[in-house]
Amino acid sequence: DIVLTQSPGTLSLSPGERASLSCRASLSVTGSYLAWYQQKPGQAPRLLIYGAFLRAIGIPDRFSGSGSGTDFTLTISRLEPEDFAVYYCQQYGSSPTFGQGTRLEIK
Amino acid sequence: VQLVESGGGLVQPGGSLRLSCAASGFTFSSYAMSWVRQAPGKGLEWVSGISGSGSSTFHSDSVKGRFTVSRDNSKNTLYLQMNSLRAEDTAVYFCARSIAVAATWNHWGQGSLVTVSS
């Protein structure tokens, strides 16, 4: 299975700042089949990005994805208060796996 | 789109449980579905997936041989039969609808808690 490693584990930022979350794969992700999810306490995950850079329906354009091969990034251009949550990357080029998550907290 | 899980609860180690996921608001048979779980305070783990027709099924190594995913397209319902349950299977189990045939999911249920404990 492909292992996804997310960094940092916790990111402390203020509203209005830019956030960059990293996801590194142990093997190249086939077809850039890489997704990003946001999860808030007590809620199901919410799909943000799939295919490495495609925004899911209804996702604001402050969220963007980039990368290919083994290195991927989720960028949030200007943090809003509702963006503070846990973010997971997930690959689906082979048997699906998730990263361990990055907690984005208010500084 | 609505996905509603049921069937969770407390079960002893070695026991069995069947989860259901009732789907509505879309043509159920046109979409692959999956079960994804989350242990308390932990991350997400894909468990099982099934094609829209039900002819193809997939399971993670951690549940292979113990869990079986199935669907009844006439009832718009997804199932997860869980046998030989272990303490490490304790988690919230989410059902999720795939984007087309890809194993990434844009619609999720609210989750059903399964607790394996004596």
Describe this structure in words.
Chain A has 107 residues and is mostly beta strands. Chain A is built from no helices and 11 strands. Chain A is globular. Chain B is mainly beta. Helix content of chain B is 0%, strand content 52%. Chain B has no helices and 11 strands. Chain B has strands at residues 2-6, 9-11, 17-24, 33-38, 44-50, 57-59, 67-72, 77-82, 91-98, 105-108, 112-116. In chain B, the strands form 2 sheets. In chain B, strands 2, 4, 5, 6, 9, 10 and 11 form a 7-stranded mixed beta sheet that branches. In chain B, a hairpin with a 5-residue loop joins strand 4 (33-38) and strand 5. The N and C termini of chain B lie far apart (37 Å). Classes of the chains: A mainly beta (107), B mainly beta (118). The A-B interface holds A 1, 33, 35, 37, 39, 44-47, 50, 56-57, 88, 90, 92, 95-101 and B 34, 36, 43-46, 49, 58, 60-61, 94, 96, 99, 102-106, 108-111.
What is the topological layout?
The complex is a heterodimer of chains A (107) and B (118).
Chain A: E1 4-7, E2 10-13, E3 19-25, E4 34-39, E5 46-50, E6 54-55, E7 63-68, E8 71-76, E9 86-91, E10 97-98, E11 102-106
Parallel strand pairs in A: 2-11
Antiparallel strand pairs in A: 1-3, 3-8, 4-5, 4-9, 5-6, 7-8, 9-10, 9-11
Chain B: E1 2-6, E2 9-11, E3 17-24, E4 33-38, E5 44-50, E6 57-59, E7 67-72, E8 77-82, E9 91-98, E10 105-108, E11 112-116
Parallel strand pairs in B: 2-11
Antiparallel strand pairs in B: 1-3, 3-8, 4-5, 4-9, 5-6, 7-8, 9-10, 9-11
Q: How much helix, percentage-wise, in residues of chain A?
A: under 10%
Please tally the helical runs of chain B, counting DSSP H or I stretches of 4 or more residues: 0
- Characterize the largest beta sheet of chain B: strand count, sense, and whether it forms a barrel: 7 strands, mixed
The end-to-end span of chain B amounts to 37 Å
Please give the largest β-sheet of chain A: 7 strands, mixed
Question: Structural class of the secondary structure composition of chain A?
Answer: mainly beta
Please give the alpha-carbon distance between the first and last residues of chain A.
Answer: 35 Å
Number of strands of chain A: 11
Helical residues, percent of chain B:
under 10%
Structural class of chain B: mainly beta
Strand content of chain B is: over 45%
Low-confidence spans of chain A:
none
Question: What gross morphology of chain B would you assign?
Answer: globular
Radius of gyration of chain B: 13 Å
- Give the number of DSSP strands of chain B: 11
